[in-house]
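This part of the workshop introduces the protein records we will be handling. Getting from the letters to the tokens is the skill we practise here. An example says more than a description, so a record of this kind follows:
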Amino acid sequence: MISQNPVFIPGPTNMPEAIRRACDLPTMDHRSPAFAEILHPVRRNVQAILRSESCDVFIFPGTGTGGWETALSNTLSPGDAVLAARHGMFSAKWINMCQRLGLEVVAVETAWGEGLPAERFAEILAEDKQKRIKAVLTTHNETATGVRSDIAAVRRALDAADHPALLFVDGVSSIASMDFRFDDWGVDVAVAGSQKGFMLPVGLAIAGFSEKAMAAAENATLPRSYFDIRDMAAGYAADGYPFTPPVGLMNGLLQATEMLLEEGLAQVFARHRRIADGVRAAVQAWGLELCAVEPALYSDTVSAIKTPDRFDASRIVTLAAEKYGVAFGGGLGEVAGKVFRIGHLGAMTDVMALSGVATAEMAMTDLGLQIDLGSGVAAAQAHYRRTASDHTTIKKDTA
């Protein structure tokens, strides 16, 4: 049986009916002019959502992990040094990929719950007189901990050191949901996935490349084949792909980007902030804390909520799924069993968020945590009532 309850995992996210139907296409000849009418507009729309005037957009069949590999393999060579911080599950996974590809990683160990250590990055970059570091890897929104980092601060660190390293940003759980500024932040490669802010099923790795990154691709020597952006660019120039594209997902992405741009990026970001603030009000009312150590780091797409010591947070996730048919995110890596996660991104409204808050409350109360039933719901309701407007829902969700 298919549950009608919304999901509260930080991806894949809930899918608007209009997008689901857009993905449901009869077979199309992907070498016909009809496919070009999907391909080129969707690339322009993604560029606009990245807030760039000039970046080259590549859309591969894959996931955000494929986007990471696209960034690395197209711009770097074996033995190149990269700078990164390990401060959550996904930043750690990207570091692991670098090591497996034969790159030298300068890894800054950072507590989970903290953001990117921009000041430490600045020191390392200033000390790198030989300019050995070829790229700086950043995770804009660490999905495991609910931490948003300051990418602009990393760009300032690069500029202050007059360092030529490329700036890579994992924006998988931030792009299309939170403020992201490719051009203003001097990003060289941004990575996203279809299943989060774009409200699609898993299946597309989305990457934006700056002119500088495109130039690096001409001399990079890491092995690449499937993820070779040169082949992809040649395919785009001929109105197609170098291999068979996922036409239905591409059409869904076109629908999703049109919906986001029609809503307006400022409103999309404000909606996510408003919904997240309501969830955070609930967490405070429960007497619990977020994994993110300070408000400046709070994510607007996922809240990782700490449970009391010696209480296994995964029990909340299990009970909510088994008893109430609602999915929350479990803790990962170093915070496994210590947090549970409420995803509040993509196709989400305050009314949907309230159902998630209410279910989490029921599950925690069932498990004996000292939560006043209804306290979090009331706090979130109060926030949503204070901030209600005529522009808080996802628009154009029509068949």
The radius of gyration is 21 Å. Confidence is low (pLDDT under 50) at residues 395-399. The chain has 13 helices and 13 strands.
